[in-house]
Request: fold
Amino acid sequence: MEVKNLPQHVQDWMKEIEANVVANNDRMVEFCDKLEQYADEHNEGFLKGFSLFYRGFNRYLNARLEQGMEDLSAALNYLISAQAWGMVAHTYNSMGNIADFQGDISLAIDCYIKGLSLAKEYDIKGMEYNVRTNIANVYIGLDAYDRAVNMLLECE
Reply:
């Protein structure tokens, strides 16, 4: 979906969500609510996924991991349907982080690999580097230093 083709007020809501995901939780939630209502009324899956992603990401940042994982998981279906691959890769990376924090290394690696595959396929360099760094951190935690170094060298 081309964001520039959306009504200006919807674009403004999206900017408010992005600007406040860290800075002002209440304001972010207010605009997520507006965006989700609009998305439901206009059958706009991308917008629903966008809102759910930022809700989940905010919860992840505020250590509400289970709720964050639920929102991020729900966002995936919408974002995949909309072919919003950058956001899908970011979602998998965030879900990998949550799984890693919760000690589920298998799920973390699975999420990271999915995010890395998308980042490579769609040439999303910044996300590729983020995911590679996260995978390297898992390897370091497993004392697999050679694998961690190899993963980080791919970031050059």
User: Anything to note?
Assistant: Helices lie at 8-20, 25-42, 45-61, 65-81, 85-101, 105-121, 125-141, 145-153.
